[in-house]
Structures are given as structure tokens and as C-alpha cells.
Amino acid sequence: MLPDGTQVDLARPPEGDALVLLQKDDLGRQILRHSTAHVLAQAVLSLWPDAKYAGGPPIEDGFYYDFDIGRPFTPEDLEKIEARMAEIVKEDQPFTREEVSLSEAAELFADQPYKSEWISEMDPEASEQGVIGDRVSLYRNGDKFVDLCRGPHVPSTGRIRSFKLTRSSAAYWRGDEHRPMLQRIYGTAWESPKALEQYLWRLEEAQKRDHRKLGPEMDLFSFPPEIGGGLAVFHPKGGLIRKIMEDYSRAEHEAAGYEFVVTPHLAKDTLFAKSGHLDWYREGMYPPMEMEGATYYPKPMNCPMHMLIYGSRTRSYRELPLRLFEFGTVYRFERSGVLHGLTRVRGFTQDDAHIFCMPEQLEAELASLLQFVLKVLRAFGITEFEAELATRPDKYVGKPEEWDQATEALRKALVSAGIPFEMAEGEGAFYAPKIDVHIKDALNRRWQLSTLQVDFQFPQRFDLEFVGEDGGRHRPFMIHRALFGSIERFFAILLEHYGGAFPTWLAADQVTVVPISDRHYDYAGQVAEHLRSTGIRVTVDASDQSLGNRVRKAQVSKVPYMLVVGDKEAEARTLSVKPRGGTEKRGVPLDDFTAQILEEVAERRVPV
RNA sequence: GCUGGUGUGGCGCAAUCCGGUAGCGCAACCGACUUGUAAUCGGUAGGUUCCCAGUUCGAAUCUGGGCACCAGCUCCA
User: Fold this and answer.
1) Distance in angstroms, CA of A341 to C1' of B23?
2) How far is A288 from A278, CA to CA, in rounded Å?
3) What's the complex ipTM?
């Protein structure tokens, strides 16, 4: 099944390297993985003849297939299946396509309830899911296995060179939590052993960089069970890095004409009734608290409070655009199973702003806003951006014309910023279309980060107005936006992006001084004091350990600079400078190093 | 929330199947060594085995409940 419906004729495939080349592009890999999914199903059915098989598409980096064997698969099962798959590959069974009528297909899969369900839903008028008129396509490999499938496939199972089953897990039939739970086996397949090896390396590297592992290891943050799931505490070093991120963000916002506001964490139900949150997202909110005859909720968003600030007095068109910014902490009752380190939590802080502007200012404001977003994110070493433009969902408030107008303004901003983007139809928030900015990290993983939303609903619900040049009252437009999205989440992304080796301006400890022996402690202390007086964060490793031991500790700690000092350095007031990941340079005058690191920090230099 | 899994000194692990004094490495601490670039040597201390019940002469181990985490599903304003 290819999402874009492309058909590829592989009846006469290119041979040798050309096939590998073909399989290297996304389409080729999808075909390869889809074929491997068939082999997986074939293997499972040969081992468990009573198994019911549901379906298995290619996915990013691999494929899966859903089965029902009446119990979960064990790791031993996976080994057996993988071995059986290897046999099927070795037998080089040809994949062949055939077309049968819907009734023939129904008969063929009569004892396969999941397949039968697909067939029974197929519309003879439509041409999708492998259905051509009232006929449906099947793929067989050899005479051993047949599956309902649109294809295409590789010519034969022997083309599958490098695959591996990675894990198994439960999944609802057709993604519906009210339907039966099937057992899903995930695997990966690549055009060559080398590509598979690279993929496995990436997996391993991602595991090493996992912020849930690095965070506690580097003493940055933790999730005390006593506080509760999805609620993090930042330790001094994590808190320091977070403060540096916030300080930079504040400075940039101040320069860009934002004004700073502060709002409480709780509000009465009437506010969230007015904003619509209680109607639309009650189940995502923490439960209410009763107090003195009123009902309070922890806020799931900052918007309603910013609306109140805008509405607190008459606004003139001269004040617009009015940009209200806050590091606002919000609470959302995420279902327990979805919590994930710092990237999916129940309490988090948004770098949230609401911009109120006149209709004629909207386009220009969005365009400069998008540039601002990119500038700030680039300072953190993010270089690759993609965007999604999410349009009106099924559940929405407001008038369709307004949605169209807002969507068009967002689209123009994207075009003028030159960010590649795709449309995400129906993915907008209930009150607004939005741009989601995605970034790619050092391991080429995509993360959704910034969001820009044009909102016509809140100004209406809160009856916001401004007095125009004509002396009349008008409704402002409002833009919701967040750059980091959530500071916690962005912190985690940076931690993984850098694998813990933060650029110097962000690193909690920037320099470690290592005296060679205890008669060099004095000079080490002087060096540290000098650096500290210029604002550099420096520690001295005066522990009673061998030099090699302390050098190793400095390396492992990922501190940006290690300065080794001994007799020669003390005498000449120089340093042996070893940058993290670089080579040592001896005899560097203290003042030179100081000037150099200060410049690096001031420029917020990031590794290239 | 659902399915499956995991929870043992700060960290990584062993003992869990088949109940019988919880053990190892690293880190920490103390001492010796005074070092020129990724682990010096010797010693010491540290555990309510996630929590609460139950079974048992006896529970890290078995049973039930809870909490937290992990892989997914679903969800993600």
C-alpha cells in the first residue's frame, strides 16, 4: 500500500546495483518493507497455522504486521519467526499478483475475520485499497502465502537482504480502543546490510542520548514518584541551563517588542466556560477544586488570562500590535500511558505569547513572527525546519470564511519565510488553524516545536475591541504562538540533539581546571577565580586522584573546556587547553583563553 | 486509559523460575601515593529488595491491590 497511490511496475526490475539504488529511495524502501511484512505474516502463519492476520504496512524505518494468536508474542517467538523468515528469503519465492472478484476474495479469506472485514467494506464503485472496480488484487509468494494487497512488491523474497524484527506490542484493531487488541510485530528492512547496520547504530545512539537517561546521569532533573507521574523537578544544573534558555528568550522577546505579563495557575470554571475549554477539552484538564462556593481549575492554557489583560481597558489602534508574553506553567491531565520523560508531561511551561493586531496588520505580523521564531531557534543550533499548515478540523467553532481567511494568511507567511511545508487537512485546533514548525535534530529525527495559530474565536468570546483611527470600535485579530512550545520538551530535545554536550553558552559547567599535583592548586584556584570574575562557570578538580583519572572524569562529564595546569603553566601563567572533542594546545596565555571563551559565549557559538 | 513488561545501596547489574543470613562492579568515604593528559593501590561504609496487605516456621522470590517506569495502541488545545 503506497500512501500516494503510486503504482510501480517491478515486473522487470533493474538488476544488481540498480536495484539497490532503486530501493534506496523512499518509494523503493516502502516496497521492500511492505514485502518484508508479507514474509513476516507468512512466517507467523507457518508457525501458528491458526493465527489470524490483520494487516501490515510499511512505516518510517520499517514495517509492522498485526496478528491474533490468542496471546502476546515473546522475545523467543520473535527469534523463531525471524529464523523462519530467513528461510523464506533463502527460498527466493516469487511474488505474484492476481485479481479476483470480491466474492472470490471473501471465500478465500472466509476463516480470516480481519481480512473479511476489509473485504466486506470494500466499495465496488471505488478504486482504492487494491480494489479495481469489483475486483481486488492479491499477492502470493510461491504457493505458500496469499494476502490481500494493492502492492507492488519486490519480484521475489530473495530480494529482501537485510531485515530484523525489533519488538512486539499490542495494538487495537483499526486503532479503535473499543475493538479487539491484536499483537503487532515491528521490524525493519533495508536495501543492504550496511544500511541496516547504520540504522541499528542510529537506534543505539538515540538510546545513549535518551534524555530520560542523560537527565538523571548529568544531575539535571528527575521525576520523584512522590510528586506524581509527568511532574518533573529541575536540579541545580538543569535549572541553570533552563535559566540560560529563558534569559536568552526573554532578551529576544524584549527586543522584538513583547511585553511581559504574569498570570496565576488557577482560575474559576466561569473563565474556562467562557473560553470554551470546559466544552471542548474538559477531559484533558485536571479535575476541579471547590472553594468558598466557587469551582477552580488548574489552567490548561494561558490564553484566557491574556485575553482578560487585553480586555482590562479600552485599547487604541495605536497600541497594536500588542504582544503579551509569559513563561506560563500549565497543567494537563494526560492519560498515564502517554507520559514520556520531559517530552510529554502533565505540568509544563510554555513560552507563550498572544499578539493582538488589526486585520490589516495580520499578514506582516505573521511574516515577521515566523522570522523571529527561526532566529531564536537557530541560536540553539537548530538548522533544519519544516512546517505543517493545519486546517479546520471536524470539531470547530466559528465561521468557515474566517477559517479560510486565517489559513490563507498563515500560508502566505510560510511562503514568504521560505520554509518547506505541507498541508495537514483537518488537524487544526478547535478554535484556530495553525502552523506547526518541525525541526530535525542531530540524528535526523523530526520534532514538532513551535506553533503559530490565528484565532478569531477568543476575541469574540471575550468581546475584545480596539478603537480605530475612525473612532469606531473594531474586533482585533489574535495570534497564539509558542517557540519552544514547552520549555521542558525543548530542553529534552536539546539534550538529545547535543547528546549532553551542550554548546559552551548553554553548558552548566563551562570549564574544569585540573591541577597536575597539589602544589598546583594555588595556580588552579587563581585561574578559576579569574575566569569566574568574567562570568565563566568553572570548577577545579582538586580531588585526590591520579591525573589520568581526573582527565577521564572531565572528558566523560562533557565539559566544554579542560584546563590542565602544572609547573610550566604556573610559571608562565599559561594553560594547557583541551576543548571537548578537540586536541590539546599547550602554553596558551590565560588572557588569550579568557578572551576567546568570552567571545564564544557572547556569540552563542554552536558546534557546526 | 488499554495490552505486555520492569521495579534490588547514588548508578549498572546478580540472586527471583524452584521461598531459607541479599552479592558484584562503578561512584562515595578514609588512608597511602604527588602524578604531564580516558580508570594508582589498600581499606571502610552504604539496602524497609517501590508501597500496602496476604500465604508461609520463614518472602527480594508466591498471591492480591496500589504507585512509578518501559515498549506500543489510543490521545496530544
Assistant:
1) 32
2) 11
3) 0.93
